[in-house]
Amino acid sequence: MKTKIYMDNEKLIAGITLKDASMPEDGNMALHSCTDPSLILQNRSLLAASIGCDLNQFVCANQTHSSNFYKVTRDDLGRGAASKETAIQNTDALYTYEPDIALCTFTADCVPVILYDHSSGLVGVIHSGWQGTIKEITLKMIDYLKQNETCDPKNLYIHIGAAISQEKFEVDQDVYDQFKNLGYADEYMYFNEKTNKYHISNQQTVKRQCELAGVPSAHITIDETCTYINNEGFSYREDKKAGRHLTFVMKKQ
Q1: pTM of the full predicted structure?
Q2: What CATH number should be reported for the domain whose range is 3-164+222-251?
């Protein structure tokens, strides 16, 4: 089981799984995009063991490119871990204050976001594909935490995980216009005259959303690995049948 650990200290562990040809289904972690669900559960169980928990401590959502988020409690333990049907429905971001719950999000080019509040102990994950970025899911969730969970954005630390690079994320006018309408993404886009396509950095746009929500720039890190180019990346743009990375965060006791 190949994983890239982004954070591992006395308070939390967080990281992302990687594509691995030696693993069942190349290390795919997604029940919604697989050939054999039993192999996905095998992969998930290996991940759980590697980070010091059981599979029934995973909590997963049925991601729909929405701007919806959900507060996870101990009552949610195991939701979506072994079955799509038990996942938290129509949700693309999860957060919790509870220890020993592995919050999970699935991506193959989309931007995974991990957040941690060093004051309150809150942890969270966000799935921000380009549609989620247009809907400002990250900005909205941080604003919600600020207003409803007494979370000070200055105490947040954000890690933006591996995703498709600006070089490989090429779009037509309609998607460009939606990013343009955000009013703050212009510097993260360029036009390629040879291909008549626009190129957008979804990661940098998400970073800007964090900054607009009040997170200090110094508290934001980015994994610039391109999931399209890198052979350890799952890329939906490269292969519509691609598996998925699992990005996780778990607060420790």
Answers
A1: 0.97
A2: 3.60.140.10
